[in-house]
Specification:
The structure is a homodimer of 382-residue chains. Chain A contains 14 helices and 8 strands. Chain A is α/β, with parallel strands linked by helices and 382 residues long. Chain A folds into 2 domains: 165 residues, Rossmann fold (3-Layer(aba) Sandwich), CATH 3.40.50; 201 residues, Up-down Bundle (Dehydroquinate synthase-like, alpha domain). In chain A, the strands form 2 sheets. Chain A has a 6-stranded parallel beta sheet, covered by helices on one side. Chain A has a two-stranded antiparallel ribbon with strand order 6-7. Chain A is globular, with a radius of gyration of 20 Å.
Chain lengths: 382, 382
């Protein structure tokens, strides 16, 4: 096991009815800015619940944080916070709202010229506004970690900082009842691939491996149930908890991590607007096929423990597991090929060029995902 | 899933060499009291490592915290802290040192007459000194949780408070190389039973169940290896991490918990001085046999997923799994019967009377462990 630091200070308040307790968790006298997305919180009643919970506490609002939150949008919020003196950010929504709010929090405290440097130059975040979160879409794990992905022009980049870890996360599974099936499916795939990025490396670590396998098995079981029975509380709760655990850091401590599937997927979102979760479903099967030698032992373990594939040669077991994973994504109505999204094969040159421009020439846990290999993956995913 | 709050603020610093970084994690200007046990830290070099890491930072010392730390001993430390004005406690040792230090921290801040009320009357802990920990014995999980078990006369009682959760926990697996086999074995059993207390109830929760099963499987695999190959770093690391995860709260969120095995075990330690881990190995198999109807579904799941027992009738599978668990404890040289420890069967009356005196008349996740049932368990464990 590699040395590691694990720190997850977010207070998680999980369960139906927890939103009503919100006011207790916000520092007294705080000037709160409520941040949200495209307005689904008005349709599903969460806005009303939050407003009722804040009980006359005055708060400002900044809505319209889009999926794949954009720098330009978020900088408007930064200006609002500066002008109005907000000192606590309450993010209500899914991963995009949470990620965007993290950037707002970090940009306020940024002491350089352009807060985009937090992403483009990985300038360290020295201070940030405190954040609380009310999660409405289980997927990204953003509610308890320090990571955020922000888009500017054709660039979709990530930063990670302890300073933007939320103070609290309210997770009420009932808020997810009204999610469109497409978002549920995307969330299941996203959480699944988050686990895979931390698990599918040559590292050997029994606790982390078994936690990962437990999350993958849970997503395999509960994902289809959530699609079939959207109003089953326990299914929604299990899915929400699995997605949080998938990326709060606990399964990735002390092991090598990959994340090349995310890097390639981000290009597909940035260039073609494909939903984040769907890009992962396109890239991961191809990535595992192309990289099967570097990941052989763990792929065999994955085949046995997650998909119960134990018969046949090593090659057959590995391909059997990858095919089952692909079928699982497809069973959620998530297509797994680039062509399914109307992308032309000729676009691969541009994707590879974009990776090159960003210096993403040695991705993966071992740097083995070169530009040539990324090209192979895009081609295999076509 | 039940509603829950999960908050694990302890910064975990895991790995060989982490002790050397200790000074960074202690607030500047703090007046540190180093607490420890019977002196093993002088033999295994940990004291020297800690002293070197504190680099000339002046610190006081309080040694001699015994296994099953005693109120009277700890109150001496409380007096020392008051007299000398220490404001940070650095606990170096195993669960007893950590638990004892939590009581010292809480007793200092106690505003009533007798700090024993924190245990006897479960008086709330309103303030406590900050604590840092350097763990040398993986077993109790005390390094990242708010629980402590303290002994006074014939009473061994527990308290739990967020206020005594350690600020940091340094976990260096290399510090465990020199542990006597008996302590390694006790630690494995202790961690195993911590998981069982949270897992073996009728609750159905796939993430928590699979995390629990993952820890049990890890302990089954790595425990014997640690006995056979005491200097294998990865084995020690896996064991240390499993023991921490077993009781940092993560496997027990949102589910019913039992803890009756611990309550009965505490009586065996208080009356006969049997090591804590060993008392659990005595009580748990008997408890599961006596309570098999209340825990049937989970026992069958445990049989299948942890011990791969899938053949035979339900009764046979349940008994098969319990017998395998018992054999596992015995394989670590941990006897599993009361008679093995020289206790007379006639002592059972006194054990039951002690439970009655403490009001422990309806233990377990459902209150089903009545005095009559506890008697049955002690008899079955004889």
């Amino acid at each position: 096991m590699q040395n590691f630091v694990y720190h997850s200070p977010t207070v998680i308040r999980f369960g139906e009815g927890e939103i009503a307790q919100l006011a207790r968790h916000i520092p007294e006298g705080a000037k709160v800015l409520l941040t949200y997305g495209g307005g689904s919180i008005f349709q599903n009643g969460v806005y009303d619940q939050v407003k009722a919970a804040l009980k006359g506490m005055p708060f400002g609002e900044f809505g319209g944080i889009e999926p794949n939150p954009r720098y330009e949008t978020l900088m408007q919020a930064v200006a609002l916070v500066r002008n109005e003196g907000f000192d606590f950010l309450l993010a209500v929504g899914g991963g995009s709202v949470l990620d965007g709010t993290k950037f707002i929090a970090a940009a306020i405290g940024f002491d350089g010229l352009d807060p985009w440097d937090i992403l483009a130059k990985q300038s360290p975040v020295k201070a940030a506004l405190p954040i609380g979160t009310v999660l409405t879409l289980p997927a990204t794990g953003s509610e308890t970690n320090g990571a955020a992905v922000i888009t500017r022009g054709p660039d979709k980049l990530a930063f990670v900082s302890d300073k933007v870890k939320p103070r609290f996360a309210v997770l009420d599974p009932a808020t997810t009842y009204s999610l469109p099936p497409r978002q549920v499916a995307n969330g299941v795939v996203d959480a699944f691939v988050h686990v895979m990025e931390q698990y599918m490396t040559p590292s050997v670590a029994p606790v982390q491996d078994r936690f990962s396998e437990g999350l993958l098995l849970t997503l395999l079981e509960e994902g289809p149930k959530a699609m079939a029975k959207p109003l089953n509380y326990d299914v929604r709760a299990n899915l929400m908890w699995a997605a949080t655990m998938a990326l709060n850091g606990i399964v990735g401590v002390g092991v090598a991590q990959d994340w090349s599937t995310h890097s390639l997927g981000h290009e597909l979102t940035a260039r073609f607007g494909i939903d984040h979760g769907r890009t992962l479903a396109i890239v991961l099967p191809a990535m595992l096929r192309v990289r099967k030698d570097a990941k052989r032992a763990k792929l065999l373990q994955f085949a046995e423990r997650v998909f119960a594939v134990t018969g046949g040669s090593e090659e057959e077991r590995i391909e059997g597991a990858i095919a089952k994973m692909e079928s699982f994504f497809q069973s959620l109505d998530v297509p797994t090929r680039l062509r399914d999204y109307g992308v032309e094969e000729s676009a691969i040159d541009g994707l590879v060029a974009a990776l090159e421009r960003k210096g993403m020439t040695a991705l993966g846990e071992d740097g083995g995902v070169t530009l040539a290999l990324s090209r192979q993956v895009f081609e295999a995913a076509y």
